Structures are given as C-alpha cells and as structure tokens.
Amino acid sequence: MRLRDSFGVDTSDDAIRAAIEKHNRLCRVITEIGDLRKAENPVITGYEYHVIVLVSQVCPHDLILPYLEETLAELKTRRPEAEFPFRARVVLAGSEIDDPEFTKLLESCGAMVVADRYCFGTFPGREEIEIHGGETAFDAVCRHYLHHNQCVRFMDGAKIDQRHSELRRLAEDYGADGIIYESMKFCEFWSYEKVLASHVLQQEMGIPCCTIEKEYTLGSVGQLRTRFQAFVESLEIKKLGHKEV
Fold first, then answer.
1. How far is CA 22 from the centre of its chain?
2. Whole-angstrom distance, CA of residue 227 vs CA of residue 80
3. Which of 59, 160, 176, 185 could form a disulfide linkage to 64, CB 3.0–4.6 angstroms apart?
4. ω before 42 within 30° of 0 (cis)?
5. Burial (0-12, 13-18, 19+ Cβ within 10 Å), 76
6. CB neighbourhood size of 234 (10 A)
C-alpha cells in the first residue's frame, strides 16, 4: 500500500503476475541461447553469452527483449567453426563476475565457458517463476527466491549441498571437463565456500576443479593466465588417459 500511495508503484496481484510473465519470457530466451552451449561445437562462445546476460540485466526488458529474440533467431542459423576451437569445456562458478573480459581471458587460454554459476550469472537467476494453484503472485516470488537462490549467505547444510549438486548437474548437462571456482578478494563467504566446494567436487564427485582468487578489476592477468593454461593442460592429459584406457 505504501509503495502505491507514496511512489505510484502498482503492487497488486495482477501487476506482479504481469511482471512475472515478462520475466519468464526473458528467461526463456536467455535459457534457449545459453543451451546452445550444450552442443559439441557451439555456435556461441562463453564471452558472447556473458555479454548477452549482462545486457539483459541492465536494460529494460521491454526494450531489450526484441533484440534478444532477434539474436536467438540469428544464432539458430549461424554455422559453427569447422572444428571445436577450444581445448576444454568448463563451468565457471563463484562470486561476482560482471566483466566479460574475465571470460574472454579464460577462453583465450583454451577453456570455453559452457555454463556460468556465479553472482549475476544464469544459474541461478534465469529460472522461470512458477505460480502454483491457490498461490498469490507475491508468495510465488518469495518461494522462488528462497528455493532457487544459491547465494553463499545461505549457510545451512541443505543449501550447501544444493550448491554442490547444482555444479555437478551443470558439468554433466553441458559436457564440462572441469570447473573453475573463483572468489572475489575479501569476499569471505565465497572464500570459505570455495575451499569446501573444491574438496567436495574433486574428492567426492570426481570433478576436476581449479580455484582462484581475483580482484574486482581484472588484475594479475599473467598469474591468472598461467593458472588457467595449467588447468587446461591437466584436463587434456586426463582426457588422453581415458582414451588410452
């Protein structure tokens, strides 16, 4: 009531349902674009997709949606490279990454980002909001947020397990060879999570994992490049070992 009376914001159930439909329409397009990365030889790179996701988060949905739909249609007709241009496929996970240049750096080292599980990324963030029978639109938004949100500030055991399971699902669904797990410098929540996740992913789930710490601005490029290149080489060696077996 106060939002409506003081700021003219319509918070009625009908208004929230209309906002949910706009959100879901955008999510469907973004998800379909992202799923193109599941292909053995994708027609879109992780860098290109990162730019698209960021644009969808900072532009008004009514203005950007037609362009996203046009992009999706164009991608469906785009022909991929003659051969897969990367040496490995990885899931990029961790804290805030709103600089596409970081993804470009990673891919320049030979690792294509086929799925993104970080703050401002797709998982979570681009799931459609479902309104169950007998549920108000407001309750649906609250339930969706509490269930799908995987921020590390949710520190109960079930949420921690959910985050690890989600990474394994993404690695399997998108055919990733390994996971790059990053944390922003001075972000204590993700620093703790990174240590635990690295152990669980590698020792319990058998998924190769490379952990790094990064600054908000893209610094220490040389060190990051060395780490990424070494990880890519380890993934290649592992694949060669499987072929020999």
1. 21
2. 28
3. 59
4. no
5. exposed
6. 15
pLDDT tens digits, residue range 74-94?
999 999 998 999 999 999 999
Q: How far apart are CA 29 and CA 224, in angstroms?
A: 32
Report the C-alpha gap between 230 and 106 in whole angstroms.
Answer: 12
**Residue 80 CB: number of other CB atoms within 10 A?**
14
Round to whole Å and give the CA distance between 120 and 229: 25
Query: How confident is residue 71, by pLDDT bands cut at 50, 70 and 90?
Result: very high
Longest dimension (CA), the chain: 70
| Distance in angstroms (rounded) separating the CA atoms of residues 188 and 240 | 37
Residues 6+ away with beta carbon under 8 Å from 83:
41
This prediction's pTM: 0.89
In the numeric block, which tokens belong to residue 139?
């309750």
**CA–CA gap between residue 187 and residue 172 (Å, rounded):** 28
Dig out the tokens for 38 from the structure: 């599941």
Q: Report the residue count for the chain.
A: 245
For residue 38, give the amino acid letter.
K
CA 106, CA 116: separation in Å to the nearest integer?
13
How many other C-beta atoms lie within 10 A of the C-beta of residue 231?
A: 25
CB 207 within 8 A of CB 213: no
Q: pLDDT, tens digit, for every residue of 133-187?
A: 999 999 999 999 888 888 888 888 888 898 999 999 999 999 999 999 998 888 8
